[in-house]
Amino acid sequence: MALLFGALGAAVTLLATRQRWAEGTATVAGGAFPLTAKGSDVTGVPAALAIVGLAALVAVFAVRRAGRFVVSGLLALSGAGIAAASLTAASDGSALDEKAAKASGDTSATVDALGHTGWPYVAAVGGLLILLAGVLALRYGRLWPAMSGRYERGAAGARRTARPADPERPEEIWKALDRGEDPTGA
């Protein structure tokens, strides 16, 4: 469930940050013209934290013990950060003011008839899903299986010394490779 919530939350957040969050009209000497701002124009924090959340979600299954606890905490914090940044930016009009100043060439130009869409709240819901995934990982992560330590250096106990592979018998060379031995070494 945590994997599903985390992946869904990141996808929803990334989708929401690509949508229109604010719209308004800038009045210039020549008339009024409409302006819009996407979520990534308003704030880049939700999209960046969604990517951090996805990386943490994958890493939760790759680490063990204390590492899993730390990564689960990072996952939960990234979800909380997405929700907080999205809700804070939901009523922000500064991105449109910057666009109005750039379009008109007047640094004091502002946007009139400012309106906001529901996409910041959708991004916040995505953040809450990632937060839920992090909380589930913190609570139940110690019970989840971890990746095998088979190929880690020094993970195996006593290694048995195998006889060198006979170069005349190709099946022995393949078996040596399967055991992780170098059949070309002496």
Any descriptors?
single chain; 186 residues; alpha+beta; Butyryl-CoA Dehydrogenase, subunit A, domain 3; three-stranded antiparallel β-sheet; 7 helices; 3 strands; 55% helix; elongated
Structure, described:
The protein has 186 residues and is an alpha+beta fold. The protein has a single domain, classed as Up-down Bundle (Butyryl-CoA Dehydrogenase, subunit A, domain 3). It is built from seven helices and three strands, in the order H-E-E-H-H-H-H-E-H-H. The chain has a three-stranded antiparallel beta sheet with strand order 2-1-3. A hairpin with a 2-residue loop joins strand 1 (20-28) and strand 2 (31-38). The protein starts with a helix and ends in an 8-residue tail after the last helix.
Strand and helix layout:
Elements: H1 2-17, E1 20-28, E2 31-38, H2 39-42, H3 45-60, H4 65-89, H5 94-104, E3 111-116, H6 119-140, H7 170-178
Antiparallel strand pairs: 1-2, 1-3
Give a brief rundown of this model.
With 186 residues, this protein is an alpha+beta fold.
Largest sheet: 3 strands, antiparallel
What is the approximate shape?
A: elongated
What spatial order of strands do you see in the largest sheet? Answer: 2-1-3
In percent terms, what proportion of residues is strand?
A: 5-15%
Question: How many separate structural domains?
Answer: 1
Mean pLDDT over the residues = 83
Order of helices and strands: HEEHHHHEHH
Find the count of extended strands (DSSP E, 2+ residues).
Answer: 3
Unreliable stretches: none
User: What is the CATH C level class, in words?
Assistant: Mainly Alpha
By helix and strand content, what is the structural category? alpha+beta
